[in-house]
Fold GNAT family N-acetyltransferase.
Amino acid sequence: MSILDRFLNPPAPHIEPLGTEAAPRLAAIHASAFARPWSTLDFERLMAERGVIADGLFLGRSGKPSGFVLSRTVLDEAEILTVAIAPDARGKGHARPLLAHHLDALSRRGVSRVLLEVEEGNEPALALYRRLGFRETGRREGYYQKADGTRVSALTMALSL
C-alpha cells in the first residue's frame, strides 16, 4: 500500500475489547461527556472486576479508543454502566455499531436481558437505545445531578436479547 493509499483509504472503524490499560483514555472521554466524570482509578477498579466487559471503538490508525461501552454481567443479565464517544467523533454514527457489537458479545456470553439508565432529555441517546430495541421500564426522579447543581430524572430501559 502506498503512502497516498494510506491517506485516501484509512482503516475502517473497528471495535475491540478493552483492558485496564485503557482506563486513562476512558476517563478522559467520560469527563468530556458527563457532568460527574469517573476517574482513571474508577475505571481501573471497575474493569478489574469479574463480569465487567468493556469494548472500545477505534478510528483510523489510532491506538487509542475514540469511544467505549462498559457493562457488568450477573448470570443472564447485564447492565450497561456507561457509554461515551470522544467529542471529535460524536454525531458521526459510531455509537450504534459500537453498541450493536457490544450487545452481540453479551448475547454470546449468555446474557438474555440488558438494562440501562439514561438521563431524561438526552434525546440522541434515547433515540439510539430505542432504535436498538430498548424499552422504557421506569423513571428515577432527580437521579442525575447536572453541572449547574440542578437535578434531572433517569429513565430506566431494558432490552431482551
About this structure: The two ends are 41 Å apart (CA to CA). The helical segments are 3-8, 23-33, 40-48, 95-108, 123-131.
